[in-house]
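Section: Multi-chain targets

For targets with more than one molecule, the full set of components is provided together so that the structure can be written out for the assembly as a whole rather than chain by chain. Components appear in the order listed by the source. The example entry contains two components.
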Amino acid sequence: EPEVTQTPSHQVTQMGQEVILRCVPISNHLYFYWYRQILGQKVEFLVSFYNNEISEKSEIFDDQFSVERPDGSNFTLKIRSTKLEDSAMYFCASRRGAPSDTQYFGPGTRLTVL
Amino acid sequence: AQSVSQHNHHVILSEAASLELGCNYSYGGTVNLFWYVQYPGQHLQLLLKYFSGDPLVKGIKGFEAEFIKSKFSFNLRKPSVQWSDTAEYFCAVNASYNNNDMRFGAGTRLTVKP
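Its structure, encoded as tokens over all components, is:
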């Protein structure tokens, strides 16, 4: 069964550094998402992406965040200048088409900002 | 904007006990409803979803959920839990017409004692 993959599984960085989290969505999916989950808290929506542009973003997704689909398979989340409070689990998800279709989640990248 | 409430933060049951996890959502339009499970150290997996038709939805591993529109609820049930059901359970909702974000509840941690 196809699955969403994410790399790395764990990223440790110093405050102020840039990080890029990578995701490979399921190949025939059209909608892509990033979520984060701070330890012990709920899963929070960050951004959705369709047709090579952001379709919606949450208040969390400020100017420090950006997303890109640099080629036909990868979907990346960049944090330009990490803060301590960016430490969280970041999940990528993809969905084939209609809103009722299942969103498939990747295993997540644990980001630790020191 | 839609929101999701899960009233039980941590539920502890013995094996073979029956389970019901509450989920209420706040949204005036037509919605799609989902239950995801996160086993320890693993990523989010879909248990079941509702988007139309029979309000009683059956999912994997013996789980079911009932959509009660008048109560804005989508409670998850299982008649007899197993130790392997120990996990975090998340209710989620998106608007039927909206291709974008999915809102998650805070999650309910289920611990099943052998």
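Chain B has one domain: 3-113.
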